[in-house]
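Re: that chain you flagged

S.,

Sorry for the slow reply, it's been a week of failed gels. I finally had a moment to sit down with the sequence you sent. For the record, here it is as I used it:
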Amino acid sequence: MVTREAWLTIFFNKYMAGLGNALLALFHQTAADPKEPWADFIVMQLLVAALIILLLVALRSKLSVDKPGTLQHIFEMIREFIRETAHDQIGHDGHHHVGIFVTLFIFILCANLIGIIPGFVSPTQCYYVTAGCALLSFLYYNIVGLKKNGLWKYTKHFFGPIPVMAPLMLPIEIISHLARPLSLTIRLFANMYAGEKVMLAFLSLTYLVIPSVFMGLHVFVALLQAYIFVLMTMIYVAGAVAEEH
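Prediction finished late last night. Pasting the structure tokens below so you have them in one place:
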């Protein structure tokens, strides 16, 4: 687990410990220390969600066909890039899933990048957060696969192309599918955790040129990992909605 460092987490624990304990009680959970129920990854996720909502509100208020602003251009570029990638991976049905792909990309990217701000921590360097994103991806591609092909047609590919191979293929396919959320979880968590620690290590040594280089590398890794996560989700969706497996 990540050591709590964010000042905002300290603020939440000081002034909203009762709320944190009440929320945990709703899920039949208790904090190890009732005086500090808030963890970095929870507070940072709430902050990321709030920032995204504020960004979207600001974007909506300035939407323009004739004179689009910088923020609108950025979001349009992201959506168009995701839409084209989804079309390449999934085909003509790709546009139906652009919403979930864009949402995942923006959330993961913002969660990855917020750790660059002094006093904040990237929630994606905690495996709870990356596991939640991976579980969403896992549930989504299975649900759309069942919706598109029906229960029998969707599960048929688990048995392989030849009936005699079914006893061998079924456990292999099940293990393969269950390994997908684990792979997504570990890949994102490990890269962001390592990147954050390297950046902090160099920041502790010097505050000049070298940290800037590693901060730039951290931004690149944040972008790359958000893209890889969404790309893998697209590939899983493509396999789930395919007419033939």
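What I noticed first: The two ends are 39 Å apart (CA to CA).

Talk soon,
D.
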